[in-house]
Design brief:
Blueprint (H helix, E strand, L loop, with lengths): L2 H16 L5 E12 L9 E18 L3 E6 L6 E4 L12 H13 L6 E8 L9 H17 L5 H16 L6 H8 L4 E6 L5 E5 L7 E7 L7 H18 L13 H5 L4 H25 L7 H13 L6 H12 L4 E5 L6 E7 L3 H14 L6 E4 L7 E2 L2
Parallel strand pairs: 3-5
Antiparallel strand pairs: 1-2, 1-12, 2-5, 2-6, 3-4, 6-7, 8-10, 8-11, 9-10
Helix pairs in contact: 2-3, 2-4, 3-4, 3-5, 4-5, 6-8, 8-9, 10-11
The structure holds alpha-D-galactopyranose (GLA).
The site of alpha-D-galactopyranose (GLA) has 11 residues, from helix 5.
């Protein structure tokens, strides 16, 4: 389906459900993170790219303050009123949408009710930040509809607040920043402390390369609890080391600091500090257009997430190992982990072999069939109609 076909389908669904024409259509992308994993809630560095799959949202204002949210598949809306929103008041996927309306109101934005119909092609729970896509499409749509004139960074921060405080997931800010600020043909180098960012050219095709996403189609029921555990371990280690955040631990101070911590937290800290270093090295290589040379850094990141941070899974390890065996230049899990997706940097000519090898390795181990597709660095949230 082309983007225009999708837009027409969502607009038709909107008319069917509301009897009105929508006032506009907006899209926001999912993301893959090239490198810099579990660093964002440690005030560190990340390097994600927005991808060409995401969420499409069509909407119109309502004068009565009602908020009605449909997905393309559902005939009954999630229903609430803009004045009654509060953490926990909306459940399920619609909470990501309602949460943004809540966060905007709390921040003083003069927004009212809306009818909203959503469709998406970023797989849910695949580690590709579908929730941030939902939030960031909503933030832009409400901002546009009500003319609140927010800056992109502020929209991303409110989307992040919605996820933390309304939905209750203690994520970092990477996904919302990628879904808002992503740029076609570029990766987003972000300092999550200062929010300073740079769009780093990422024209892999010109170098004969592609970044394959490997959606393992495996999730983990306990992801949220384990994510929160990792975050808490980092915060307590930083505290014990007398630091505002692990970002503040220099690599030349690392060994001395590790000696004071228990083994488990030492692993977590080692990962965060070395991962921040790998992001900076990757950015330098990208700036020098030395794309193939980032491969070993990706693979080292995976090893660190697997061993020191302990957030990989048998499916993710199989994806990475089999891609590397089949000739990938580098590979790693991407996103929170415990299932979800991996990325592999491959020469365009080897993409077919890598896809076949990963698929065969999954079949051999009795895992479900993975889905592989190229990550195309795409534009952050924008209006399309
Ligand atoms: C999830 C979170 C992000 C980040 C990653 C791990 O995607 O939403 O904020 O912490 O996990 O890097």
């Amino acid at each position: 389906m082309t983007l225009e076909d999708q837009r027409l389908a969502v607009a038709a669904a909107f008319f069917q459900r509301t009897g009105q024409q929508p006032e506009g259509t907006w899209v926001a992308p999912g993301r893959v993170n090239l490198i810099g994993e579990h660093t964002d809630y440690n005030d560190g560095y990340v390097l994600p790219l927005a991808i060409d799959r995401g969420v499409m949202l069509t909407a119109a204002r309502r004068e009565d303050g009602a908020l009605r949210i449909w997905s393309l598949q559902e005939n009954e809306p999630a229903l609430s009123s803009i004045d009654d929103l509060g953490p926990g008041s909306v459940k399920g996927w619609a909470a990501y949408v309602a949460g943004v309306a809540w966060a905007m109101r709390v921040a003083g934005a003069r927004i009212g009710g809306a009818d909203i119909v959503l469709s998406g092609d970023v797989p849910l729970g695949a580690g590709l930040a579908s929730s941030a896509a939902l939030e960031c499409a909503t933030a832009l749509a409400l901002d546009d509809l009500y003319g609140t004139g927010m800056e992109p960074e502020d929209r991303a921060l409110l989307a992040h607040r919605a996820e933390n405080d309304f939905v209750g997931v203690p994520c970092g800010v990477m996904d919302q920043m990628a879904a808002t600020l992503g740029r076609t043909g570029h990766a987003l180098f972000l300092d999550t402390r200062s929010l300073a960012h740079e769009h780093v050219p990422f024209d892999l095709a010109a170098a004969g390369l592609t970044l394959l996403v490997i959606d393992t189609r495996s999730g983990h029921a306990l992801v949220e609890g384990k994510y929160a555990d990792r975050r808490a371990a980092c915060e307590s280690a930083a505290d014990e080391l007398g630091l505002a955040a692990l970002r503040d631990l220099r690599s030349d101070e690392l060994e001395e600091a590790l000696a004071t911590l228990d083994d488990e937290r030492a692993g977590r800290v080692r990962h965060v500090v070395t991962e921040n270093g790998r992001v900076l090295e990757t950015v330098d290589l990208l700036r020098a257009q030395r794309f193939p040379d980032i491969g070993p850094l990706l693979t080292a990141s995976h090893a660190s997430l697997r061993k020191d941070y302990a957030v990989s899974s048998p499916e993710l390890d199989t994806a990475v190992d089999s891609a590397l065996l089949a000739g990938a230049l580098g590979a790693r899990m991407t996103g929170a982990g415990f299932g979800g997706s991996a990325v592999a940097l491959v020469e365009v000519g080897a993409a077919h072999d890598v896809t076949a090898a990963v698929t065969a390795a999954f079949a051999e181990r009795g895992f479900g069939t993975p889905e592989l597709f190229p990550a195309v660095a795409s534009e952050g949230a924008h209006r399309i109609g």
